[in-house]
Amino acid sequence: MTDLPHAFNLKKSLGQHFLKDEAVSRRIVDALLQYPFTQLLEIGPGAGALTKYLTGNKNVHFRAVEIDREKADFLKKAYPDLIPDLLEADFLKMDCPFDGKFTVIGNFPYNISTQILFKILDWRENVERVIGMFQKEVAQRIAAQDGNKTYGVISVLLQAFYQVEYLFEVHEQAFKPAPKVKSAVIRLTPVKEPFPAKTEKMFFLLVKTAFNQRRKMLRNAVKGLFTEEVLREEIFSRRAEQLTIAEFAALTWKMRSG
Q1: 3-class secondary-structure state, position 152
Q2: Main-chain phi, psi angles of 170, to 5 degrees
Q3: Cα end-to-end span (Å), the chain
Q4: N or C: which end of the chain has fewer CB within 10 A?
Q5: Residue 91 and residue 72 in contact, taking contact as beta carbons nearer than 8 Å
């Protein structure tokens, strides 16, 4: 275990739980290093549990984004080489940090982890891989398959574009302060061929609308998106969680236009 700087104030508003278990940090970095990359962004480096393994590689352009000024000041002192590439910003509001392909890594703040993933989806043409720590329940939702009660919007939208690997789980005592939930690390790698939806906008609209009323039969949940004739098809007698990603994509070709 690594001791955190005594002066650190942990901010609940930012969902801060700092990783202190070196073995877990190394496992996350090992998962990162299994694939080549030349540009790397760390989200929320905090006390530098991962950062210390990521700096110093002259073959990789490494950047980190940290919203907390106190933590940013600590990182500047601990890793002065990082100063030009330490972005003091809100990740959810920042512009894409690199031109071209880049990898993302982080012990993501749990209170915004889903928002982080939607931001990454916006950048998916550039994001070649993601290795991240999430609350266990969120990681399970991301990796869930159709027919599972945890299968939902984030499962479908991420898996439409990324292969999800549920790598390993992390005990509460690996953090300071210890969260009240277990954590898990997942890796996202782009799929070779995304499912052929009519348009991505229609696909996103259909998935979000379907799961907005997930307990209803599909024909009731999405009736505004299809003609009455199409809604009589058998697939609309199922619920959203029972459809595969390929079925959602195929249905976009039958949606009302405009």
Answers
A1: coil
A2: -130, 130
A3: 56
A4: C
A5: no
Query: Which residues are paired to 190 by β-bridges?
Result: 162
Output phi, psi for 50, to 5 deg. Answer: -95, -35
- 166-218 tens-digit pLDDT: 999 999 999 988 888 899 999 999 999 888 999 999 999 999 999 999 889 99
Residue bearing tokens 């782009």: 190
Amino acid present at 72: A
Taking only the tens place, the pLDDT of each residue in 103-129 is 999 999 888 999 999 999 999 999 999
d(Cα 140, Cα 6) in Å, to the nearest integer? Answer: 34
Q: How far is CA 129 from the centre of its chain?
A: 10
Helix ranges (DSSP H) in the chain? 22-33, 51-54, 69-78, 113-122, 136-143, 153-159, 200-212, 218-221, 228-231, 245-251
Residue 35 and residue 101: Cα distance in Å, rounded?
Answer: 13
**Full set of structural domains in the chain with CATH:** 12-190 (3.40.50.150), 200-254 (1.10.8)
State the amino acid at position 137 in one-letter form: E
